Amino acid sequence: MKIKSYLVCGLSLCVCMNILLAETYTYMDLVKRLTDLKSLSILPQEGEFCGQYSSYDRSSRYDPETDKYINWDANGDGNGYLGMEGDRYILAEIEGPGCIWRIWSAKPENGRVIIYLDDMSTPAVDLPFIGYFDLKNEPFTRPGLVHTVASGWNNYTPIPFQRFCKIVAEKGWGQYYHFVYSVFPKNTKVPTFKRNLTKEESDALDRANEVLVQPNKIDSKHTKAMIIRDKKEILPGQRLAISKIKGPKAISSIRCRLPLPAFPEDCTLLRQLTIEIYWDSETSPSVWAPLGDFFGTAAGAHPYISLPSGLEPDGWWYSHWYMPFEKQANIFIKNESSKTQTIEFQIIAEP
Residue 334 above 70 pLDDT? Predict the structure, then answer.
């Protein structure tokens, strides 16, 4: 009897622990993930993973029985689907809890794409496929989240679901699709998406939109952030320590600017200048890259704006990748060119 009692108590404790460990995400929590680079420094929970459904050519496949790839050069990637349901194409079926993070197409048209979530008797979203991207249908109306770039139509509005997601399309939907999603651990609780958002949910999307419309303008809001500004000359062949920061802290921003020759000579110089970052007591760097590569502009200086990094029109590179460390961070720049280089920089480190 004692053994049975111990087993019952043990099972009860496990159930209680699972309940305590269960994550509950509001819609606002999920929207915050769109712009919270700090969260990337925390490993996902066990059981969380990311996946994608796409229109890739299904005739290209791996045969496990022969250990061979069949039709691996097949390239009809615009019209693939999982199967048919009557005269509708099944584009995705996902077991929850999860969230769709990105919908993409190269050629959305007027055929309807319909998203069913959980036990809802009516679709959560039922629109012409073009309607997911044309900024005419709430809540897909925010240009920081819904935009067309390089002939790619993008929608980054989170669409969470608790138990199940099924996406089907009617004839004339277009060509090419991606549905990028995450699945959370089974005990996670998330809301079921509805297009009619609450004010709090809509405000969260507005805040994310503001960040993503001008992603280069985000700055540390931490009142105790350390800001290091300096300008240094680096001689040919010199490896110069530009910053040593005591921890525990996290670097949340690195910015730099330097005079550059015209293209294509700038390509060469931006590879002759390298950045190294050592954490704590490391003897080899965790970060090493040519300067242009580090800021995402290789080869050469090509202005662009994104949330984690970019090159602004005034010549300032920036990196907003969040990099925590325990004891210290040592940052070096090495000049392997034949001329002295002058570099301005700003580093922000948060407690």
Answer: yes
Q: What is the pLDDT of residues 95-115, one digit of tens each?
A: 999 999 999 999 999 999 999
Q: CA torsion angle for 182, 184, 190, 193 (degrees, to 10)?
A: 20
What is the average pLDDT across 38-51? 95
Task: Report all structural domains of the chain as residue ranges with CATH numbers, in order of start.
Answer: 22-213 (2.60.120.1390), 226-350 (2.60.120.1390)
Decide: 79 and 175 in contact? Cβ < 8 Å: yes
Cα three-residue angle 96-98-102, rounded to 5 degrees: 135
| Farthest-apart Cα atoms in the chain, separation | 84
Q: In whole angstroms, give the CA distance from residue 156 to residue 31.
A: 10
pLDDT range class, residue 220, cuts 50, 70, 90: low
**Which secondary structure element, helix H or strand E, spans residue 3, and what is its range?**
helix 2-21
Closest CA to 99 of 16, 162, 55: 162
Question: What 3-state class would DSSP assign to 110?
Answer: coil
What's the pLDDT band for 26 if we cut at 50, 70, 90? very high
How far apart CA 173 and CA 100 sit, in angstroms, is: 19
Tell me the per-residue pLDDT of 272-310, one tens digit each, with 9 for 90 and over.
999 999 999 999 999 999 999 999 998 899 999 999 999
Interacting residues of 104 by C-beta distance below 8 A, sequence separation 6+? 152, 153, 154, 155, 176, 177, 178, 180
R_g of the chain computed on alpha carbons: 25
- The answer to whether 43 and 217 are in contact (CB under 8 A) is no
- Is residue 234 within 8 A of residue 332, CB to CB? The reply is no
